[in-house]
Amino acid sequence: xxxxxxxxxxxxxxxxxxxxxxxxxxxxxxxxxxxxxxxxxxxxxxxxxxxxxxxxxxxxxxxxxxxxxxxxxxxxxxxxxxxxxxxxxxxxxxxxxxxxxxxxxxxxxxxxxxxxxxxxxxxxxxxxxxxxxxxxxxxxxxxxxxxxxxxxxxxxxxxxxxxxxxxxxxxx
Length: 172
Hints:
By secondary structure, the chain is an alpha+beta fold. It folds into two domains: about 1-45; about 50-170. About 55% of the residues lie in helices and about 20% in strands. It has helices at about 5-45, 50-55, 120-140, 145-170; strands at about 55, 65, 70-80, 90-100, 105-115. A hairpin with a 6-residue loop joins strand 2 (about 65) and strand 3 (about 70-80). About 5% of the residues are buried.
């Protein structure tokens, strides 16, 4: 191996080492930027809050409070949404919202849109909820028949008002 080839090899090795060091530095900087962006995203994220703003609460559907934390509370709500999405509008929006406990300001939200016309999905949802009620009653030694009778009586009494509210809030 000639002296010239040895010098070229040393030069290439030196350049390669510098390039590898620079790539490592850039990788570290990108990693730090990603962590910073992730933290910023977590602080500023509003997933689902835009949909909440585009929907209206239903007066006949009361919010259900979940188990909260010392600083946050969680609520399940039924809302009416007329905003068109994927060619559909006039859906029921089932939302879970995370709120600041003291200010009641919405921090995050997750919503599921269910078409109001889809009786099969709505009846499946109702069956699942009633099943949970049945389990809860059985565990507490309560009779579910009285509760169901009261619920159906209340729904029958307020049925006309519920339909009118949906007709007002949605565009059929």
